[in-house]
Amino acid sequence: MQVEMLKYAQEADAGESLPGITALIRDHLCPHVLDIDIKGEYPGEFLHRLGAIGGFGAMVVPQFGGTGKGLKNAVRVIEDVSRECVSTGFLVWAQNACAWYLQNSSNIAIRNSVLPQIAGGKVLGGTGQSNAMKACVAIEENRLKAVRVNGGYCVNGTLPWVSNIGADHYFHVGIDVAGEPGLMIALVRGDCPGLTLSQNAHFIAMEGTNTFACQFKDVFIADAAVVSHPSEFERFRTRTKSAFILMQMGMGLGLVDACVSMMKRSNKTHGHVNRFLDDQAEDVEAALLGARAACYRLADKIDASPDTGYERDTIALRLLGSELSLKAANSAMLHLGAKGYLVSNAAQRRMREAYFVAIVTPAIKHLRKELHDIDSGCRVCSA
């Protein structure tokens, strides 16, 4: 295991996840992090620039405008961005998740037309799957309902929060269709008739993520906008779920890495007293190296055999990522002490970001419920 950890650590340090990403983050993200966090600035320009160098193409084959570098590369890109700003790392995940669903669609027209725009960052988009994922494991009821009509579906309902969207953005949603056993996955544009986007909340973190409540009132979803039909849902879910969730590890890995760096810097002047804290920099760093190695290894497995699922392994690792994020951010805040209370200090921001990593779907309680259901053999339902 130590040899494997060293191998993946060396791989992460061997070079950039993408050519030019270090300079891009330094020049076009770092100067905006405080405004993203405090003023709610949406980093749209950075996202477009990141897309242009391949930041959203790892899970998309070159035929549809991607780089085809695979899941591990997608995680590394999100990790690199999240090392500076988890809000922006979350948006990078959302864009990649949008591309990943379209890549696996049976709708060749969507893959030919919209997918290259998403993969290249020319058009931005998100994923409205939080409610659907929770509905699939009986945490809550699916909020979007559809009935079949001529040429498509009529959809009603409200999703409370969907991120990385806007009038000119795309996002996909999971919808209950009357009389059908599986969910329909549909691609929606923010300005489609009958859809209302409302920014009706303010957040202690993630304020710059373009997060909207989405009200569907007799929204027509044409057959041409269907990503996956209800009859395809089981296979689609098996093929997409693990990568969808594992990509979120990039947020946690980047955050923990940043926290370790803060702790080490603090120890240069306050190591004589920081040594009395429960979680030390070297211990958190060792846990980070282990989590990173496990994540990269699992990503390679999922790439090699996407239809296998690896669902339990992914859920367990994602849970570890949440728990480690909370531990690392708490320790970094304690290491920094009073300095961490400053609005401009990263320590308090990292605490807030860590709670997001732990609460964003699938949240810690969601992940533990799924592990319980799997291990007890009482899987609820698939739709």
UniProtKB/TrEMBL annotation:
Q: Which organism is it from?
A: Sulfuriferula plumbiphila
State any single GO MF term. Answer: acyl-CoA dehydrogenase activity
Cofactors:
FAD
- Residue ranges of every copy of the Acyl-CoA dehydrogenase/oxidase N-terminal domain listed in the record: 23-121
Q: Which family does it belong to?
A: Belongs to the acyl-CoA dehydrogenase family.
Official protein name in the record: Acyl-CoA dehydrogenase
Q: Entry's SUPFAM superfamilies?
A: Acyl-CoA dehydrogenase C-terminal domain-like, Acyl-CoA dehydrogenase NM domain-like
Keyword Protease in the entry? The reply is no
Q: What InterPro entries has UniProt attached to this entry?
A: Acyl-CoA_Oxase/DH_mid-dom_sf, AcylCo_DH-like_C, AcylCo_DH/oxidase_C, AcylCoA_DH/ox_N, AcylCoA_DH/ox_N_sf, AcylCoA_DH/oxidase_NM_dom_sf
Record keyword Flavoprotein present: yes
Please state every residue range assigned to the domain named Acyl-CoA dehydrogenase/oxidase C-terminal.
255-359
Alphabetical UniProt keywords: FAD, Flavoprotein
